[in-house]
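Lab notebook, bench 4. We co-purified these components, and the gel suggests they stay together. Before we commit to crystallization screens, I want a quick structural picture of the whole thing.
Request: model the full complex, all chains together.
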Amino acid sequence: MPDEPVGCAKPTGKVLGAAAEKDDLPESKQEAGEKSMVMVKVGGKAPDFEAPAYHKGTFANVKLSDYLGKWVLLCFYPGDFTFV
Amino acid sequence: MQKLGVEVLSASTDSTFVHKIWVEEELSKMTKNGIPWPMISDGAGNLGKVYGVYDEGNGVNIRGRFLIDPDGVVQAMEVMTPPVGRKIEETIRQVHAFQHVRKTKGAEACPAGWEPGDTTLKPGPDLVGKVWKVWPPR
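Here is the predicted assembly.
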């Protein structure tokens, strides 16, 4: 995990493990922005992302692609200090 | 989850600063060793949007849980509105089931209500119309 946190969480727009193909895409397609973002789908590759995180006392940068080869449980929740 | 060989990542729209204080002020008093996994800050809901859990009206990510296998494939997901919490036992059951299916390279399937140790099904011509003979085991 690289030490320097990124500015804000951002999806790469690609699915996990697709990074190698990135250079093959035409420029225009890469710049199409959110519309070309890969959405999650059961049975499909997970949308890759890079995000800042708090991990055991330090601020770190998390890349989902670093977890390839492992089982991952990704959990979203509404907010810290909420009740449920 | 660590015992099952599953890496956990959590994410909310709170900043990493808020995550830090939440762990220090509250969570460390509710759990023995604090929070061992990375707590992601998704301030603009960018991740929530591609995972279909971002609530634009309230600016938060609703509860969503995604089980991703070692190939990066999403094997299971559960998305819920805020007032009802999750049950971790069901997630653990699903982890066992998906890991079993993967171990058998898809030759075995875990039917409805399957728990670790239960009979699995071996889909194929011989099983058609005969599921009643092997399932349910109880």
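Chain A has one domain: 1-84. Worth comparing against the SEC data before the next meeting. The longest helix of chain A spans residues 27-30.
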